[in-house]
Task: structure prediction
Amino acid sequence: MLDLIIIGSGPAGLSAAIYGIRANLNLLVIEKDYEGTGQIALSSKVDNYLGLPGLDGYSMGEQFRQHAVDFGVNFLEATVTEISQDANDKHWIVKTADGAVNEAKAIIYAAGAVHRHLGVPGENEFAAKGVSYCATCDGAFYRGKVTAVVGGGDTALDDALYLSALCEKVYLIHRRDAFRAAEITVDRVRSKENIELVLNSQVEEILGSDRVNSVRLVGGRVLDIDGIFVAAGSVPVSRVVPECVEKNEAGYIVADETGVTSAPGFFVAGDVRTKALRQVVTAVSDGANTATAAAHYIENF
Ligand SMILES: Cc1cc2nc3c(=O)[nH]c(=O)nc-3n(C[C@H](O)[C@H](O)[C@H](O)COP(=O)(O)OP(=O)(O)OC[C@H]3O[C@@H](n4cnc5c(N)ncnc54)[C@H](O)[C@@H]3O)c2cc1C
Result:
């Protein structure tokens, strides 16, 4: 039996693997999309990770993986389809789509999250060319420019406020006439002179040539913009997580930064965990903390 199975080889999983192997754990990383290391592979430029400014996300991820490979981490390219726990000694059993079964004393679940898309024409075409899902990641590239944020919850309003400090103007496009955000945030948004509320409106198409230059709303209004931030929420990848592991209403696995969940021996790291900021740096930090907690658990197994 293995000591540890890590599910997912994004920044959280790879960081956990490096801490785990340095703690002498006999571990395996299972990853379904071996090409590209998690969500960050989709980013054209990452400017907020300490010490590696300006790298494209794919290269950054490959550097992360090479670090793990050089330290002797073993990988299995497969999709995890089922996780269960042995009734007797409480070790974990992980099944993958290829029919393989691997067993370990502990699990670190680091399968990430995916951003909800609008599903409109132009959205995929201009991904990373003016369409973004993360104001914290990409806002600084729009200093002095005109942007739009789409959404009506806390994230959308926080994004609009964040961008209003950088951009000349921010359109906040929301399909209803009331927001689903905290009242104090709504008041702050309303008080900003460079945020224009575009309510009862939906995006019909994102337009541009090389990059985004405008957005057309249902009904025909066209807004000239340099970038558009979709803040329609994110979805945790937690479908295969067993019921004994507590999740919140949105499906995120409940844990603090130690990664300890409601199920002994099942740890969580990265974007799939309940947390305030989903970024590479917090995923990497989770990986380190969680592998340390898992190593203590395994020692006493
Ligand atoms: C376009 C874009 C730009 C971004 N820009 C930045 C930025 O500039 N700076 C920044 O700090 N952050 C940025 N982020 C956010 C950052 O990428 C994430 O916070 C980070 O990747 C989270 O790491 P993770 O390891 O938790 O999850 P992920 O990166 O999502 O990795 C999870 C991995 O688990 C695998 N997996 C899922 N389910 C299974 C399964 N059933 N079986 C096996 N494997 C599975 C997935 O294939 C994936 O490789 C960006 C995100 C996106 C989408």
